[in-house]
Amino acid sequence: MSNVDEQDERIAKILLDTIPLDLDVEDIPEVCPESLERYFAYLKSNLKLPCFLTGIEGFTWEERYFFGYGSEAEYEKQRKTQPSYKDTFNLLSLDEEINEDYGLFVDVKRTSDNKNFTLPLADLKASDEHSNNYQLLDDYSVWFVNNR
Question: Which tens digit of pLDDT belongs to each residue from 12-37?
């Protein structure tokens, strides 16, 4: 295999029926309904529960506070009702909804107050960096972000 790293190889094995001997990053399928369905089935079969998640970076609603357009007090008030990248979530299930723009969704429960949310999976990572789930979710997020 040429011009690919281990992560590209893992992703290709999920999304391709046969792996070319001269696999290149351009061979990895783009995000589309069919590739999302395939990734969904793979994750559904391979993610192990319990799985605790946190945000990779600030969620969309948090961006204004990072750029100084809101007060810390206002931000903390919003965090009571909105999910934050700082929160820890328990993965409940993969959501059946598949969206080409946002990818796969997951149903989660925030551990601090048991509030339920549905969030884009590409915005999340496993809290335990040494778990198999961490690599599975990292591979998905990298593929989704780089192949839209």
Answer: 999 999 988 889 989 999 999 999 99
Domain spans of the chain, in order of start = 31-146
Helix (H, G, I), strand (E, B) or coil at 98: strand
Q: Identify the three-state secondary structure at position 54.
A: strand
The owner of tokens 């040429």 is 2
DSSP H or E stretch at residue 71:
none
Integer-rounded Cα radius of gyration of the chain: 17
* Phi and psi, residue 108, nearest 5°: -130, 160
Q: Which stretch of DSSP H or E encloses residue 27?
A: none
Find tokens 């990895």 and name the residue. Answer: 28
Separation of alpha carbons 43 and 73, rounded Å: 38
Residue 29 carries which DSSP code? Answer: P
